[in-house]
Amino acid sequence: MCSELFDLNGRTALITGGGRGIGLAIAKGLAGNGADVALVARTAEQLDKACEAIRAETGRKALSFAYDLANVDGVEGLFEDVVKEVGGVDILVNCAGTTVRGASEDVEMKDWQRVQDVNLKSAFVLSQAFCRHRKQFGAGGRIINIGSLACHGARPTIAAYAASKGGMLMLTKTLAVEWAKYGITVNAIGPGYIATELTAPLLADDDFDKWVLSKTPLARWGQPEDLVGAAVLLASSAGAFITGQIIYVDGGWLALL
Predict the structure, then answer these.
(1) Burial 126-156 (b: 16+ CB within 10 A, else e)
(2) What is the pTM of this model?
(3) Which of 36, 97, 164, 231 has its Cβ near the most Cβ atoms within 10 Å?
(4) Domain annotation covers residue 149
(5) Which residues form the domain of 43?
């Protein structure tokens, strides 16, 4: 019975940012529970290695689609290409993300816009395409957005990133309410500080590292694999009555006064 709750056999998941870090960990986790996966990221070589690893570790189908999600005008066409190749998408994981760090008064608009396009706008366009696709089948679907602690609070130097993740939280809630009638659940996962290539400069900063550890009751940085359990829950039958929520996987960060 327990295995059936989390069984993803017969389903296909599209994961953006799937070439490395959190996206790759989630892709491996979904595949490990039976899903076939389609991965989107900018670098073809990185994606090919990721797909090869998934196939070797899980035996599931894994296909790569190299695309820069900052080019939002082509995102709907990207989704159509994925559907043509895999036959249908049951689960959408919007994980692709980027950031720019610096004093807010000095952020250039081109950098601001790229963060919004990659982190938020492309996720919305993909979600729209996914909704239209799933409505054709009348069988519902699952959207999982990757949020952040910045969905809840902020710190200096991340204005563009925090704005995009705050928007992701409200987008999650809005789409959950609006698309429930189609049987589509929409949820988010809010990672704490996770050791990835994106956060490597922060982890390498001794003062920042100490600050993170002092704020995290479990006293460590998270690993991408720490996000897998929540993702499998939200993608599977076990999460069928969960929608419009954000699950923080943060080592206790938000519980600490």
Answers:
(1) bbebbbebbbeeeeebbbbbbbbbbbbeeee
(2) 0.97
(3) 231
(4) yes
(5) 2-193+224-247
pLDDT tens, residue by residue, 96-120? 999 999 999 999 999 999 999 999 9
Nearest to 144 by CA among 7, 57, 18, 5: 18
The residue annotated as part of the active site, out of 67, 161, 193, 248, is: 161
For this structure, is 161 an active site residue? yes
Q: Measure the CA–CA gap between 33 and 11, rounded to whole angstroms.
A: 10
**CA 125-130-136 angle, 5° bins:** 135
pLDDT in tens, 136-182: 989 999 999 999 999 999 899 999 999 999 999 999 999 999 999 99
CATH number, domain containing residue 109: 3.40.50.720
Nearest to 202 by CA among 192, 189, 190, 217: 192
Residue 91's alpha-carbon distances to 15, 140, 214, in angstroms, are 8, 10, 36
- How far, in Å, CA of 224 to CA of 67, rounded? 22
Query: Can you name the residues that pair with 185 across neighbouring β-strands?
Result: 142
182, two tokens = 């189609």
Residue 2 scores a pLDDT above 60: no
